[in-house]
Amino acid sequence: xxxxxxxxxxxxxxxxxxxxxxxxxxxxxxxxxxxxxxxxxxxxxxxxxxxxxxxxxxxxxxxxxxxxxxxxxxxxxxxxxxxxxxxxxxxxxxxxxxxxxxxxxxxxxxxxxxxxxxxxxxxxxxxxxxxxxxxxxxxxxxxxxxxxxxxxxxxxxxxxxxxxxxxxxxxxxxxxxxxxxxxxxxxxxxxxxxxxxxxxxxxxxxxxxxxxxxxxxxxxxxxxxxxxxxxxxxxxxxxxxxxxxxxxxxxxxxxxxxxxxxxxxxxxxxxxxxxxxxxxxxxxxxxxxxxxxx
Length: 294
Ligand code: ZN
Fold this sequence. Notes:
about 290 residues, alpha+beta, CBS domain Like, 6-stranded mixed beta sheet, 5-stranded antiparallel beta sheet, 10 helices, about 30% strand, globular, binds zinc ion
């Protein structure tokens, strides 16, 4: 099944909902970053939520989310945009633990239960929005729920789950974000809270093979859901050899000359997709020329 995301409104627009299946996108990230099971789950949940937040953006705007906890995984960084393109990495991919008391991958242990979550939205024309909140559980979904409440002041429920096969590939991944818009009354909010509290875990729903529409139908049952948009989700990195060339030129002539003298070339690796770019001695010499002609 292809990964996709749906946008919907319920209760005459007073509630906004986003749901996603992201199995292939998370598997692509796992293969590229060589993450072990618990790290895959932590990264996969973050990528899934970032894809959902990307769908809230417009045009060429981009969003970067970063979770920096005190756990062994280090930082988790993810980028998303309004086109459904997502990329991301963790600083320590080789992290795996026994499952926790609930029989789930122990994401909180990998991430840590203290630290910070930050969000940067690049809205074009040098306009940035940044938001921060502390990590509350290290389980990622709860941390983003808290982020929306304190940093964006939008009451939200965030869920993301990743299931791993015995061979460590991704069996299933997906999630949702439900947001209450201004104008929702207390009765509606109480009703929604009840639904979310009694909602099965997102992992269970994914395991049953629910698609994004079905996830929302399970949550809102008899309520009328108005689906607005369906968009494909892919792991995609915007790195290129040209971008790395610019970065190398930016290091300056002395630094490039050192690469030539000591290593007779250079190798650059993209954090986000793990793609390696090689630069031969001759190419580096050409970059020095470019630098000096600027
Ligand atoms: Zn890349």
